[in-house]
Amino acid sequence: MKEKTGYVMNMKDKFGHLKLIDIPKLATECKEKWFNQTLCHINDCVARLGVVQGEFHWHKHDQEDEFFLVLEGKLYIDLEGKTIELNPHQGFTVPKGVIHRTRAEIKTVMLMIEKSSVKPTGD
User: Fold this and answer.
1) Which residues, in sequence order, are CB contacts of 60 under 8 Å at separation 6+?
2) Which pTM does this prediction carry?
3) What domains appear along the chain, each with residue ranges and CATH number?
């Protein structure tokens, strides 16, 4: 689904269980500036691939924490009063209720793990 914001959000589970997930292939095939794909469900959580460049809007998740792990590129997570810089193989958890936005100056590939109930665009 392509929202009016220009974000492409695929919330349906693409792989499920017992399937190989080739993240470099998915990232290479992605031509969108802001792409989010649910890869699989893990109990009551999901693993999502994000391929991003540019800025996401400020938002929060009232009921869910959100974990980001950078695989390629550089991700900035803006919080009120500070910015976290994530390089490849670095991760960060934004607790529920914290207003934040993500942004990337260059194409960045990241893995997100969060409860399956989360709305990526915020509450």
Assistant:
1) 96, 97, 98, 99, 100, 122, 123
2) 0.90
3) 8-115 (2.60.120.10)
